[in-house]
Amino acid sequence: MNEQNSDLIEKSSNIPLTNYEDLLGTFGIKEFSQIGSFLKVGNQDQSEGWIFHISVRLADFNPLIQKLFPYLIQNNLSFVIPINSDIHSMILNCHLGYINLGKVLTIFPNRNSNLSKLADELVEISTNFKGPAIPTDILLGNLVYTKYGSYEIYEPKYITDSSGVKILDQEIIPFKRYPWLSWPFKYPQKTTIIQEGEIVNGRYFIRKILKFDAKGFVMKALFQKNLFNYKYCIIKEGKMGIAEDLYGREMEDRLIWQMNLHKRLQNLIPIPKLLNFFKENSNSYLVLSYINGISFGNVLHKLFEGNHWNDINNKSQIQIIDILLKSIIIIENLHKENFVHRDINAENFLINKRGDVSLIDMELTFDLTSNYPNPPFEKGTEGYMSPEQQISAIPTFEQDIYSIGALMVKCFIQFEPSKFDILNSEMMKNKFSFFCSDADLADLMASCLELEIEKRPSLIKIRTSLEEFKNRTIPKKKFRKINILDRSLLGDIINQSISSLSTNGGTSSDGIWTSLNTSNDNLVGNERFDKTIELGFGNGISGILYLLSKAKSIGFKIDLISDTITKNINFLEEHYHYNKDKIYSGFYSGKSGIALAISSLIEANIIPDSRKNIQIIYDCFTSIPSTMEIENGIAGYGISLLKCNNQLDDKFMTKKINSCIDHILNKQSSNGSWNLYLESSGQNEKLSGFKDGISGIVWFLLNYVDFHADDLIRDRIFLALDFLIKNSKLHQGYKTWKISSKSREIHDFYNGGYKILKPFIKAYTISNEKKYKTIVEQILFSYPQHITTELFSQEKGIAGLGEIYIEAWQAFHNEEWLIRAEWIALLLANTTYGEFKKSYWKMDNYHFLNACLFNGNSGIIHFLLRIFSQNKISDYYSYS
Asked: Where is the Protein kinase domain (predicted)?
């Protein structure tokens, strides 16, 4: 669990809410504490040990606790339960993370508890109830699971190893028992997670897990069809006790429905053939024939390669239109059989090498003839679901029309349709025209997404319009409409986006900025509803306050959210003072990032230049980090120190900055590199990147040279950059770097690899060495000229790339890079979401506004401020 208030979790459903505090009262339990979204009863007499978890569905919770609570009270056992039925539902449906799946009740044995006897009795109590499997634990029996761990509620948690040393308590999937621990139970150590290489049902060898989902994995398996013939198949797993709806139906019911659909439709439309259905370990499995192809989504990714529709070749354009037309014909034939698919999206069509299209994932399909399933299964894919499907209205063909319109948005614009606000039809149509440059096609997509179903076109009309668009596309010589960046409009967008930082679910009920909880696992793709409050610079309050300080400093008004700003400044100061001994000194998440926020607030006259505020800055720099990288090491600490120079006296500044420089220079190898610790491998490696590697360290040294000229350090900088150049690799015609000396993974756009170029750009400005400019421009030219992607962020997206373009333009005086930066600004201007004056950008995996600097809206605004102001504000990593 993470420390958070219950209001930091989005409500997941319209199910009537049951407060579990009231249930405790019915058992005479009056003393308990609320810890975030959970209620804790009693106190334990040890800090770590074997923990019992009980997984139970909503319908069985009341009957179970009638037996369980009296037993726990009688045995003086401390336990934790959710605060209400909504949190309970999120635990069951993986909306609080995979490592918390199924952990509805947590029971802490006492030091003298008879663990084996306790396990037996809990297993007996939980007989005849249902709940999903808990992936981090060992199943003891029925609903009872166990693991050894810390009794702490909040992260980070620690346990003691065999040498008495405190180590991090990790939630490992599948469960692995620490080697120094004995097994105190009579039950065998049985995990509940299928892994690659296993055999299920005695005949299916799991070759690859294609999709990790809490509801059940999708797997590619090998089976023996006859004596001489082995074939691949697809196995869809339905986990017991998960995704249960209000009517008691769960994944088994959905798989049985799919089995019946495949029996009826497999000879009428191109869908996988039904091979088998079986149950094992309380889970259900549907076995389908394997189609050797890739998803339409993957086809689109390969054909576009991040380019705008007008920039991809004519052959690729026609291929996309043809696949779309074939997909529509399949849906037409499905409708002729009186079925509505209800989950049309780019991942549910497979294309083989011949270009044949098959339809998959029939889970939500509805039979209009028999009105079954009644009610229809929920829900669908966000952005592709019609408004009426979202409220579980009776299925109609028009719901599929809406989904086809959304699929066209994906095909011609490359964006998930959920990025666009359908409530403003005219604005949506204008944005579509920016991406596809064909007014008729934009009208067609917008008409499919009409809120009034009678205004949506028929499938025949859609198919005819697409054929006409194809005919216009084949002979058409491409003329790109010249889009000019309107500075007045850009200023309006910046003002609107600043005002929106206090709306659209971006704050807690107390007005404090929140961020997505990423501290838990991300193994499965299930939507997360839990948020957290962070103080840090990268993805917390400090970075947002820094952005607003910079906006105010160049004349943008922040008065409309002044109340939110004040609340967050007070929260930052209060929680910093309360937790300062626990916060490390790093830049991204720690004290030096907080110091930079406070310094920027002072310089923008948002807070006074008072002794109290200056003291916070000094306190933040008390301890120098032990590692060297930008993220949370000396380089990032040093950058912040330089940027806070105006608030620090010379003696303090000189002592701290010299300690940083000395440590880094002493650790530099003779070839210019540094050995840096890589957490994922647990080893020291030569990391090349900006955030965690050599590039970031060099960036700090370059900024130090701006602060204090030093020829020796300049030489060390050039030595390090020469090391990076020598160790660059040719990849698809351009230079790049491996993530580390022991890795095959490379730096690219998708992992923010463009930031590795920053020190090369700056080195060119102080040396005029052409080799630095050459390697930068070679890599920048490898990116699409009119890059089109829904990855918007600073850390891994076009806002970050746009800032690199600005720096390249300023250093090299090449207008190409300004033109490209302005294109990104235009793209962002056409992807805002929401009503006027409250518009914002929907980030990847966020269904609420994410205000953060590195992966949220503040990062986009920062880039737009730099485009708008040209040279008035610098990069947040720069001293000058």
From this structure: 204-470
Q: Which CATH class is domain 296-473?
A: mainly alpha
**Could you tell me the two tokens for 336?**
């002729």
Q: Place 834 in a pLDDT band, splitting at 50, 70 and 90.
A: confident
Coil vs helix vs strand at 158: strand
Cα 562 from chain centroid (whole Å)? 29
Contacts of 466 (CB under 8 A, 6+ apart): 321, 324, 325, 328, 444
Q: How far apart are the first and last CA of the chain?
A: 41
Q: Are 323 and 299 in contact (CB under 8 A)?
A: yes
> In the CATH hierarchy, which fold is given to the domain comprising 199-289?
Phosphorylase Kinase; domain 1 (3.30.200)
Cβ atoms of 865 and 875 closer than 8 Å: no
pLDDT in tens, 333-372: 999 999 999 999 999 999 999 999 999 999 999 999 999 9
pTM (whole model) above 0.85: yes
Burial 251-278 (b: 16+ CB within 10 A, else e): bbbbbebbbebbeebeeebbbbebbebe
- The number of beta carbons lying within 10 Å of the beta carbon of residue 188 is 9
Instruction: Give how far Cα 537 sits from Cα of 140, 355, 389, 860, Å.
Output: 44, 48, 40, 15
Q: Where are the domains of the chain?
A: 6-168, 199-289, 296-473
Contact 700, 630 (CB under 8 A): yes
pLDDT for 156 equals: 66
Query: Angle at CA 783, nearest 5°, toward 782 and 788?
Result: 155
Q: Are 364 and 255 in contact, with CB atoms under 8 Å apart?
A: no
- The DSSP output letter for 626 is S
Task: Locate all alpha helices (DSSP H) within 580-693, ordered by sequence.
Answer: 591-603, 611-620, 634-643, 650-667
So what's the architecture of 6-168 in CATH?
A: 2-Layer Sandwich (3.30)
Instruction: Give the three-state DSSP class for 230.
Output: strand
Predicted confidence band of residue 479 (pLDDT cuts 50, 70, 90): low
